[in-house]
Amino acid sequence: MCYHRGVSAFSEVSILVVSWNQGELLGRCLEAVGAFLPGAEVRVLDNGSAPALVPVAGVHWERSEENVGFAAGNNRLLAGVTRPYVLLLNNDVLLSSGEPVRALLAFLRARPEVGAAQGTLRLPDGTSDACGERLTRLGVLSHRGYRQAPGEVAARAATVLAGKGALLLVRREAIAAAGGLFRPEFFCYYEDVDFCHRLWLAGYEVWYVPTEPALHAEGSSARALPQRQLWRGYLSNMLASAGALWGWRLWLGRGGFFLAAVVGACILKGVLPVWRGRGPRFVRKRREGDFLARVTERTPPGYYRGLARKLAVGSGYAIIQAIAERNKR
Predict the structure, then answer these.
(1) How many CB atoms lie within 10 A of CB 232?
(2) Starting at the edge strand that comes first in sequence, how are the strands of the sheet with 93-94 ordered?
(3) How confident is the model at residue 168 (pLDDT cuts 50, 70, 90)?
(4) pLDDT digits (tens, 9 = 90+) for 244-256
(5) Could you give the C-alpha distances from 98 to 46, 51, 225, in angstroms and in order?
(6) Does the predicted model carry a pTM greater than 0.85?
């Protein structure tokens, strides 16, 4: 594996990769980075893998003896970064060229008001990963284009509430303005939404930018964790982020359904959320009313039915429903 040195198109970029186990995926990810992003600084955290991952030459390598989570792991790597742009890259993302990062870099350089931009991700079955995330009119997230055939959503640049942290280029000065990168108590999930929401409030914008697709083997590490732990973390983080960042306009217009959705999800999944605190302090330079319309997605009723079905899978409600259907026969 060869990591090029010297001035290149990517010499202003530091790449952060956190890996818990998944040595084979990480190896392929770093092989592509080395081949396609010459000049970029590559920083990797072995996040408590067992056995320990084998360090790669030419890469800044750190190890944590325990799994501190995706959020805290990226924060640890960020502490040593001095370059102006930071690429958050999942260990299960495989680049087929340097074009996605090149396009994101050009976008941020041309638009100083943009704090972060996400590139295009494809899932192994050929469908789109989320092309950024917006809020629906009822206060829950809309994962734009997720699990759909690539189409207009994936092909068009758009403002989003949040970009997905699997392939997200961030302006380092914007991280400081937002009070830091991820909330370390967000072990996994929703940390990228919380961070990008803070970027908007700090006066920056967040965009989805269509690029050459990168392959994302979604959830490779998360599948090893208990589902109840994941749901408890996700719902706790979502509630804490809303409590810290939502202003009165959001709570007045969308808070009722949002809270009902969280409570319903907790019941269906059999979890009790944990309060995470108020989060980092930062200077709010923008009111939510200044950008809310730009990050709100119109969604059909079927979207909410789909969310309800997803929540019901594996829940006590799903079992009861299956029994009821059987009794009807």
Answers:
(1) 19
(2) 93-94, 214-216, 121-122
(3) very high
(4) 999 998 999 999 9
(5) 24, 31, 32
(6) yes
